[in-house]
Amino acid sequence: MNIFEKVNHSVRPWLPLMALLPVAVVMLGRFWWPGETSAWASSTRFALLAFFLCYLVAGRPVCTTQDKGLLVILVLLACWIGVSVLMFGGQSEVLRRGFVLAVFICAVALLKAVDEAKLRSLLQAAAALGGVAALVTLVTELDRRGLDFSYRAFRLHSSGIPGFAEFFNPIISGMHMAFAGLTACWCVLVTRKSSARLFWICCLLIISGYVFLTYSRSAWLALGLGGLVLLVLRGRLVFWAIFGGALLGALVLLGFKFPEIFSIELERGTSYRTLIWKMVLDSMSGFWLFGHGAGVEMSKMQIPGQTVVNTHSLYLEVLFQYGIVGLLIFVSLLLKSIHLMWADRSDFSVLCLSILLASIGVMFFELHSFIHSPNLIWLWIWFPIAVALGSSINREGQRWA
Question: Which of 235, 257, 283, 345 has its CA 20 to 30 A from that of 273?
Fold first, then answer.
């Protein structure tokens, strides 16, 4: 056995752990990480680089797939991004970000294929941490503001503790917590121990309260739609009764406490999104097929009271940057991922299916930065897509090159 083979065999057992490290940084580090947000992103890139090098040294695992369709679409999307950068004026920075994202997808897919239990435990830890962050934020806000529960009196976005659960934007904080809330809801449905189920019910109630008090309708939609998918696929009759009763009680309480909630939300309408979308579509003249180029930002748009710099719809952002061709590839990617997770329908795939279906709804109204550093897109879209890719791997056909 030569030196390379010795190194290969010594590194190989550590590969799942090296894959887990960057995923853990993404899932847990979003709540707290030493330094600024840039330090968290840099640490994620460093951990992904370490995994990638380990992946190369260990000998690339050659996995047979039961369905190569998703892998083909991912490769096709990567090629189109490259073409957009090289031929249509896209930003070269997107290529670096795309490579980092591709390594993240590989890490998650590998974990799903060879050690799903680690991914399950990681998401449960992130949900528990989300529950702690939500509780700390609620207590801090009550101490600072008092019992002022008038509708939209305040919108939760930061815990009040420097560096911990500071998102600085209620939409972003709501979406982060909705992700944790869906995981907690899933734990309630699949956990068998009564004590564990009680713990996750408490987490879900606390997180749901936080999500409501962000007054982010995107977060409401994400948690509500994802929770409905979980109930349909894993909810027994007793859970339908419990969740239905809780929802009815919450609506009655809101009706008495915030009688103006429905009139206010109807008056808010789409918050000028229809005007933003019209301006985006007007800018597509001559760029419908191929787009303006990967990573190209919209010109600043003026709407009453503010300046807008994103499309307020991920579908429109993909259309703007990558054209109809890119949008069709992206939609095909989503549909194929749904198909694979639906075919698998393991408990973990059901969770990720609920996350992806919820994000498909939210993407009509929110989310941006399609190919970027770690952000909400990594959580809500690329993570479940990576799980779908991992579910297509035939474990019996897996071997090491």
Answer: 257
